[in-house]
């Protein structure tokens, strides 16, 4: 995939994770791994799931699709296109308000 313009990196991975109830986070991470094509994610021990999620996020950074900011990762919402498990947790982007003529 092509490198993303830094202005398009409008979503914090850690804030996305923080929106999920804690007991749903392992399921979310396993779904993320499956969506990324990692085989056997459903059977992986939790520690291994966490390691693989970080590895997949690092792949995004290395390919230019994301950027590290401390221990967080900035991604574009478009990067999660097709990842249905994330959709309920993505806050809508602010809409541009247009004035109606009088």
Draw up the topology in text.
Blueprint: E1 11-12, H1 13-19, H2 25-35, H3 46-63, E2 66-69, E3 72-75
Antiparallel strand pairs: 1-3, 2-3
Helix pairs in contact: 2-3
Question: Radius of gyration in whole Å, from Cα?
Answer: 15 Å
**Structural class of the secondary elements?**
alpha+beta
Helix count equals 3
Strand elements, count: 3
User: Helical amount among residues, as a percent range?
Assistant: 25-40%
**Helix and strand sequence:** EHHHEE
What order do the strands of the largest sheet run in, or round the barrel if closed?
Answer: 1-3-2
Q: Which regions contain 5 or more consecutive residues with pLDDT less than 50?
A: 93-99
Domain module tally: 1
Q: Per the principal axes of the C-alpha atoms, what is the gross shape?
A: globular
Mean pLDDT, to the nearest integer, reads 85
Oligomer: single chain
Short description:
The protein has 3 helices and 3 strands; from the N terminus they run E-H-H-H-E-E. With 102 residues, the protein is an alpha+beta fold.
